[in-house]
TrEMBL record:
PANTHER family: DEHYDROGENASES, SHORT CHAIN (PTHR24321), ESTRADIOL 17-BETA-DEHYDROGENASE 8-RELATED (PTHR24321:SF8). It comes from the Bacteria. Keywords: Oxidoreductase. This is 3-oxoacyl-[acyl-carrier-protein] reductase FabG.
Length: 254
């Protein structure tokens, strides 16, 4: 018997951060599952590449060039959807600085994208789902940084911890409308965001991260996209307010 719980045919998904990395992989996989995918990012060229990949695979894509910190632009893009079944709020940036050297502008910039951008997307998506009576799924992107202290990751970790709290709180507020809200907290994933070092330095960093995992490897964007698909689909119909950790076993919290 075919497994139909992951079939998103006839549904619409909105993915932020879709121009590259986990966002692109998630947009592609949601499209493979049958969804019409609205791809949002400030990287216009990357968005066009993602949309082309979706369409080359027989899917349907819509492109929205926007900055997730622009609430009005995000609202316009989300409400342009004829219906909305899935939000995958994935857009994010990385910043590294020791606590004692972190400036106000560093914290403000990271919180604006990694927390407020997710908040705005969740607000607009949830409002649309409620108005149109959609029993939808909202998927946010947290990080393994919420489970452990990492040198230099105050801004990033604090913003992702805020996303976790947003996820849990929103889940309690919109569940009565049939809307589920869950977060994904990836481990080390090979993406443009984590490719911050040159040559051998990058290889050493990845090797060190791989040694921390019982599986002996770092993750790929599609590893995380499968978790996004699971949470977006009917396969997770009884799952809400949860933090799913595809991290290769690096952390195993109770």
């Amino acid at each position: 018997m075919p497994v139909t719980a992951y079939d998103l045919t006839g549904r619409t998904a909105f993915v932020t951060g879709a121009a590259s990395g986990i966002g692109r992989a998630s947009a592609l996989l949601l499209a493979e599952a049958g969804a019409i995918v609205h791809c949002a990012d400030r990287d216009a060229e990357g968005l066009r590449e993602t949309a082309a990949l979706i369409e080359d695979g027989g899917g349907t894509a819509r492109v929205h060039v926007l900055d997730v910190t622009d609430r009005s632009g995000l609202r316009q893009a989300v409400t342009s959807c004829a219906r909305l079944d899935v939000l995958a709020a994935i857009a994010g940036i990385m910043h590294s600085s020791p606590v004692l050297e972190t400036r106000d502008e560093d914290l403000d910039r990271v919180m604006a994208v990694n927390f407020k951008g997710v908040l705005y997307a969740c607000q607009e998506a949830a409002r649309l789902m409620i108005v149109r009576g959609t029993r939808g799924s909202i998927v946010t992107m947290a990080s393994g940084a919420v489970d452990t202290g990492g040198p230099g990751l105050l801004c990033y970790g604090a913003a992702k911890a805020a996303v976790v709290q947003l996820t849990k709180t929103l889940a309690t507020e919109v569940g009565r409308h049939g809307i589920r809200v869950n977060a994904v907290a990836p481990g080390w994933i090979r993406t443009p965001m984590t490719d911050r070092h040159e040559g051998e330095a990058q290889a050493r960093t990845e090797a060190a991260m791989a040694r921390m995992s019982p599986l002996g490897r770092v993750g790929a964007p599609r590893d995380i996209a499968y978790t996004v698909l699971h949470l977006a689909s009917d396969a997770s119909a009884f799952t809400t307010g949860q933090i799913i950790r595809p991290n290769g076993g690096v952390t195993m919290p109770w």
